[in-house]
Amino acid sequence: MTLNELDDEHRPTFTTGQAADILGVEQPFLRSLDTAGVVSPERSGGGHRRYSRHQLGQASRMRALFDEGMNLNAAQRILALEYELDEARREIAALRRRVEDSPDGASSDT
């Protein structure tokens, strides 16, 4: 395994049991997220679920939303909107860097 593979947050690394232990949830909770299409873990050669760090983050956020009283549909929508907002913020930051780095992009406040 290379260092890049260790750093890859999308690498399917954790079994259902390991993921449940890390998150402090029961295994059926993770399986229910898979069934609902919220988190779709990879499958090992033997058909066992393998979760990535990214998926653990999603499952953790879903658990927190459930704890706040959200139902599955509301929690899924919130998770999707949070993802869109993060993407928009990254895009805005990249565009700002491009403007700042461009010859005509120097801001003049005078």
Automatic annotation (TrEMBL):
SUPFAM superfamilies: Putative DNA-binding domain. GO terms for molecular function: DNA binding; DNA-binding transcription factor activity. Gene3D superfamilies: 1.10.1660.10. Residues 71-98 form a coiled coil. Residues 13-81 form the HTH merR-type domain. It holds the Pfam family MerR_1. Keywords: Coiled coil, DNA-binding. PANTHER family: HTH MERR-TYPE DOMAIN-CONTAINING PROTEIN, REDOX-CYCLING DRUG-SENSING TRANSCRIPTIONAL ACTIVATOR SOXR. This is DNA-binding transcriptional MerR regulator. It comes from Prauserella isguenensis.
